[in-house]
Amino acid sequence: MTAASSRPDGGRRSGRRLIALAVVLALSAHGADRARAAWDRWIDATDLPDLSVPVGTEVLARDGTLLRAFPVGDGLWRLAPPQQGVDARFLAMLVGWEDRRFHDHDGVDCRAVLRAAWQAVAYGRIVSGASTLSMQTARLLERGRAGDWRAKLRQARVALALERRLGKDRILDLYLRLAPYGGNTEGVRAASLMWFGKEPRRLTPAEAALLVALPQSPETRRPDLPQARAAAQVARDRVIDRALSLGIIDAEAAETARATPLPRHRRSFPAHAALLTDRLRRENPGATRIETTIDPRLQITAERLAARAVAGQADPVSAAILLADHGSGEILAQVGAAQFADSASGGFVDMTRALRSPGSTLKPFVYALGFDEGLIHPETLIEDRPAAFGRWQPQNFDNRFRGTVTIRQALAESLNLPVVRVAEALGPARVMAAFRRAGMEIRVRGDTPGLAVVLGGAGVSLADLVQGYATLARGGQSLRLHDRPGVAQPGVRAFGPVASWQAANVMAGIPPPGGQAAGRVAFKTGTSYGHRDALAVGFDGRFVAGVWMGRPDGTPVPGAFGGDYAAPVLFDLFDALGPRMVPLPPPPQAALTVPNAALPRPLRRFLPPGELSVPGPAVRVADRLTIQFPPDRAEVELTGPTLTVRARGGTPPYSWLLDGAPVAVGIPDPSAELPAPSGFSSLSVVDAAGNSARVEFQALGGG
């Protein structure tokens, strides 16, 4: 209302102007042909405001719910209406309150203009408005004033042009984006999230009525301001009364709506998976909708677990969690920092992607490669005794040695000397290649990796660690984990199914924290040098997860062990899956599940290649064990159900392993007939002295 219209004479002048405007509009719209043509040219020549209404980026969970919203460039919270639509009752209330003939007029409601004009003349003041939703949309697009008659004329012209060029649905969509709701909030979707913490797809009558009433005077009706609550209540209840009179709601619903308390506080917009959503927005500039594979329930659970894990710590620490479905490769929850807004604990650093020491979490991959190569079996005996590897003399974490142990015990107790012995026999280059095939990018200083890599002397991200454990969970076949919808393409085979199952079977026997029963989850913990990183990574028959705890700046956390810090969080996460958990798979048919005494003799005790179990003459280079046929990386055409293989050198008898499974044991001759494989296969031979050789080949035809 302008200053002139607040006085009787000013109201009458405004009324006369409105009458004149209504007459002009009516005559022009419905007059003679020449007048009508001139009218059409006038509307068609209207210079429309910019119709591109920027909306903030929204990142969505897998079910379409909002993970996080971002404001537009000018700081406004403005979002596109939901794709599933806005509550139909809200739309009916809006049209019934603001513009009952919205679907019948051409942008200007001449009847409403005449009514408002006669009322202004009769009462000497503006009693009711005549702005249609189309005119209000025109005003919102131009950021114009509502009461000035010249502005009204401009809004009428723009509204008429909008009706012709856009249609009702597009105009309503623009209004739902631009309607003001107080402060820096525009649009019904942002308002619904701010006042009710919900999407406007389904609103109660009380909620819908408040959202209809607020845009008329958003600052003086804000229910979060004590001085405005009474006005908000009156305005909302008037909308409820109108909805009742129009039959939009019944008397019972109206009574319940009037008794519903107003919201007292503005809510924060959703900000789940904060660091992930930040990254996705940077990677997709200009996108307004970014879909993800994140499960909203599991994401909220993971965020609560991370926050609880760091609560009460004497010094600021952070935590990161990643959970994925290793069958599909979809990432279901990702927490980059326990407290996103806490700069003291490095909340701005995404610790799922930062390079950190993996501690002992790489050991299962070394043993899996050893199983594949035919060097070891879970029941193979190995020495946990002091040893030097060049000038490096590794120690166990507790500075104790156990003597002769099985590979199973060595991995379960995370002993250092045995895994270094196996890695030395395999060679650091082959170990690093296995890491890469499993999907892990391992960073080391210099160009040549050393044996210290297997004890955590390298950099790897939590995301890559989970990726590697997903490969073991999938029987050795890698699959790239992803956070955007789409079918992941399988990668290369990193390990054989038997070797992968053997590594998982050992890890499944590790006692979980808190006295829980073993066997549900195959997992491994890790603690980096100086207690800088505490890790736990594991999987069941469907899910794979990893937890990191520490300080992003790399300073030590005294007393932080993976088993004490990270493992409880990992198992709480698996517990939260409830009935969705899937048991670990049974052993493959080719797996050799026997005690040490029943193993082929070369597998009973680990001996590095070239080291004899009993004194004897040195093996000449010419007598070194090799596989003569098939050649490494060859394509072999099969003509029958068997494959003839041939070794050279070494000490008989020989034992042959196909894809990690023994298929011929104690063969006195260097040649043997093996069952014909199909596709890509690995072939290993072990002689009586424990020497081994390995090739990979592709079998064609046969069966």
Automatic annotation (TrEMBL):
GO terms for biological process, alphabetical: peptidoglycan biosynthetic process; proteolysis
GO molecular function terms listed in the Swiss-Prot or TrEMBL record: carboxypeptidase activity; penicillin binding; peptidoglycan glycosyltransferase activity
All residue ranges annotated as the Penicillin-binding protein transpeptidase domain in the record: 320-528
Enzyme Commission number(s) from the entry: 2.4.99.28
GO cellular component: outer membrane-bounded periplasmic space
Pfam families linked to this entry: BiPBP_C (PF06832), Transgly (PF00912), Transpeptidase (PF00905)
UniProt KW Kinase keyword: no
Enzyme class label: transferase
Record InterPro entries: Beta-lactam/transpept-like, Glyco_trans_51, Glycosyltr_51/Transpeptidase, Lysozyme-like_dom_sf, PBP_1c, PBP_C, PBP_transglycosylase, PCN-bd_Tpept
Alphabetical list of Gene3D superfamilies matching this protein: Biosynthetic peptidoglycan transglycosylase-like, DD-peptidase/beta-lactamase superfamily
Catalytic activity: [GlcNAc-(1->4)-Mur2Ac(oyl-L-Ala-gamma-D-Glu-L-Lys-D-Ala-D-Ala)](n)-di-trans,octa-cis-undecaprenyl diphosphate + beta-D-GlcNAc-(1->4)-Mur2Ac(oyl-L-Ala-gamma-D-Glu-L-Lys-D-Ala-D-Ala)-di-trans,octa-cis-undecaprenyl diphosphate = [GlcNAc-(1->4)-Mur2Ac(oyl-L-Ala-gamma-D-Glu-L-Lys-D-Ala-D-Ala)](n+1)-di-trans,octa-cis-undecaprenyl diphosphate + di-trans,octa-cis-undecaprenyl diphosphate + H(+)
Annotated pathway: Cell wall biogenesis; peptidoglycan biosynthesis
Penicillin-binding C-terminal domain residues: 621-697
Superkingdom, natural source: Bacteria
Keyword Hydrolase: yes
Chain ranges of the Glycosyl transferase family domain: 80-241
Keywords on record: Carboxypeptidase, Glycosyltransferase, Hydrolase, Multifunctional enzyme, Protease, Transferase
NCBIfam families: PBP_1c
Protein family: In the N-terminal section; belongs to the glycosyltransferase 51 family. In the C-terminal section; belongs to the transpeptidase family.
Protein name: peptidoglycan glycosyltransferase
Gene: pbpF
